[in-house]
Amino acid sequence: MKPEAMSTTSPPGSGVPQKPGRTILALALPALGALIAEPLFLLADTAIIGHLGINELAGAGLGATVLQTAVGLMVFLAYSTTPAVARAVGAGQLGRAMAAGRDGIWLALGLGLALAVAGWFSAPALAGSLGADGVVAGFAVDYIRYSTPGIPAMLLVLAATGVLRGLQDTRTPLFVAGAGFGANIILNFTLVYVAGMSVAGAALGTSIAQWGMAVVYLWLLVPRIRKAGAGLLPNAAGVLSTGQVGSWLMLRTLSLRIAVLATVWLATAQGTLTLAAHQLVFTIFTFLAFALDALAIAAQALIGKELGAGDKVLARRLTGIMCRWGLVFGVATGVLLAVAAPFAGALFTSDPAVRAAAAVGLWVLAASQPLCGLVFVLDGVLIGAGDARYLALAGLVNLMVYGPLIWWVGSAEHPGTSAILWLWLAFGFGYMGARAATLLWRVRNDGWMRLGA
């Protein structure tokens, strides 16, 4: 990669803001709050369920993996809408921007309803496919089924958030996500402990909270769509276009989820202790990933807007700044996690064996954070540029690297906490290292930059 000089001043008439760092922070800081709020839903579930017992925690972990996979595959609803709206805004076409957002919202509703129905009926098969049986499988099925009513709302939230990010507004998602998280904790605690619904109560509480967020987003966006003259009814061509662009991003996300599922499958094969410890480590990984992704969100919005406006110089300079910030942020979160690793498990479980195993995984995760920071920023840059096809194909290459590595880890016997150690070495450095290599290869020149709306 050959970034331009990163001085905070630019020649007159260059079109480059004097302090681009402030522009990045204006988007990234509110996005950070909103992104942290999303995994806090899962953290709240894990903390509340973890004190019920190891079987409940393991079952909820499997159920959450299924839910995250289904919803995660639909993240293109935000990732395709953000650059589409941002490019149109950069080109001065607000009506086109709002029409793209409207079509994304309709697509989200349709896909969400289909996934909710499929998830309810296929819950036992999905839990079994991850190796769950007995009481653990029962809790996994409960978590999946009581989460399905909230899936349409989750996808509506994704699409609506993408519209606002494309409009360079990351503050509104922060406020909505924060309110949703607060409601989620109250609902989950009440349904789990007061109503005695156990794992099912945590899933149902999250579903209710997600619907509240979706309603707020619609209340905010519908008037803006009307004001822009875009109309409220979907445009078939627009919905199809969003789906076509999203298909490459879905393939990119599918490769990520396959890597995650393969890791969960291996953790399950190593026993309940390793699975429970992996759930704790992966929960914190998700939390930190969303935090690191704040810069990626800024990249999506800013790179999309500047390429839409035809400013390749500023897009390159912003990319270089955000890459360095990603590395620094990764170092900072890694240091904090390394210090907290011996104590973090106590927040989720009282089982000393699970806490000891989780600490080992958290130390590995801490060491990999700088690498993760770079990966998330570059991923956001290429999403903002609309380079979805490359991201999808690179994801397949990454799986070709990770597959043999995780097979090698699973084929050996690992006593004690060494199973979680090798599991997270493979994921944190093997898989994330492959992602970093393919992303750096792409941004080594300007071939990924496509100008115009």
UniProtKB/TrEMBL annotation:
The chain crosses the membrane at residues 60-79, 104-123, 143-167, 174-196, 202-222, 249-268, 280-304, 325-348, 354-378, 390-409, 421-441. It is found in: Membrane. It is a multi-pass membrane protein. It comes from the Bacteria. One of its GO terms (cellular component) is plasma membrane. Keywords: Membrane, Transmembrane, Transmembrane helix. GO terms for molecular function: antiporter activity; xenobiotic transmembrane transporter activity. Belongs to the multi antimicrobial extrusion (MATE) (TC 2.A.66.1) family. PANTHER family: PROTEIN DETOXIFICATION 44, CHLOROPLASTIC, PROTEIN DETOXIFICATION 44, CHLOROPLASTIC-RELATED. This is Putative MATE family efflux protein.
